[in-house]
Q: What sequence folds into this?
């Protein structure tokens, strides 16, 4: 049995079925002009070679992200729209930030969905680097300094994608992420538009407590595992630490062993 198959078995065995208490839905009137006002901007030049969901340089990877998009939409639609999703991994360097960004780009190209991508990795933010932007303010400023969301959100012009960058790095952001202000921000992002997905990139689970804190505030968790990365017992430990959160599924990243199926693989 391959290392990847063992990891798949571990994730499947430990899939958490318990519901989490989602951020309460609070109806609010749509902003004047709706989301279109956020989208009236020339698209950012996408040059990073690993943004396969947009630049089309890696056809197999781009198709894999589109399949992932379809699965995510299918699993989050129903009696309740689970649109507030967190993406994390066991360890660093498993590709969770690229997976989050590529999924956001894939979703944002669909007519039916708008997307807000939140970089909540306040320790080592990276989303702005991949997009080639230099934000003045971001999530950390909203949490610490009371900066409004409207000032921090960045229009990308890439489909219906809006980004909330991390802002300045924070050495120990757990208290900020567990604050009432963070809950308010997520509530506003979740409920401002009825067709919106909110994707949250977080630090890895095992080194830090950030993802555990945020897992109690979201509707579901998408877990990234890189082939040849964490040991099966590390995956098991990471998933166990998220007990109580709804595990939407696992993305097995950089999976060479799947041959013609591409380098990215998703399993619910």
A:
């Amino acid at each position: 049995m391959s290392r990847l198959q063992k990891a798949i078995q571990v994730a499947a065995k430990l899939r958490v079925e318990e519901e989490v208490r989602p951020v309460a839905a609070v109806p609010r009137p749509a902003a004047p002009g709706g989301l279109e006002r956020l989208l009236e901007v020339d698209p950012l030049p996408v040059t990073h070679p690993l943004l396969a969901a947009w630049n089309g340089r890696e056809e197999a990877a781009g198709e894999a992200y589109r399949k992932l998009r379809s699965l995510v939409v299918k699993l989050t639609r129903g009696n309740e729209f689970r649109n507030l999703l967190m993406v994390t991994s066991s360890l660093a360097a498993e590709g969770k930030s690229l997976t989050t960004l590529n999924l956001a780009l894939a979703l944002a190209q669909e007519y039916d969905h708008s997307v807000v991508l939140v970089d909540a990795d306040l320790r080592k933010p990276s989303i702005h680097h991949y997009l080639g932007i230099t934000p003045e303010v971001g999530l950390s400023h909203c949490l610490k300094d009371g900066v409004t969301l409207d000032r921090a959100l960045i229009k990308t012009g890439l489909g219906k994608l809006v980004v909330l960058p991390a802002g300045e790095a924070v050495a120990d952001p757990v208290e900020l992420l567990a604050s009432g202000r963070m809950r308010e921000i997520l509530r506003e992002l979740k409920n401002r538009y009825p067709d919106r997905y909110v994707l949250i990139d977080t630090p890895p689970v095992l080194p830090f407590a950030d993802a555990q804190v945020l897992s109690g505030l979201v509707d579901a968790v998408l877990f990234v595992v890189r082939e040849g990365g964490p040991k099966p017992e590390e995956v098991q430990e990471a998933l166990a630490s998220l007990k109580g959160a709804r595990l939407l599924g696992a993305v097995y990243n950089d999976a060479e062993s799947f041959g013609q199926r591409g380098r990215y693989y998703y399993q619910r």
Remarks:
- Confidence is low (pLDDT under 50) at residues 14-36, 257-268.
- The first helix runs from residue 3 to 13.
- The radius of gyration is 17 Å.
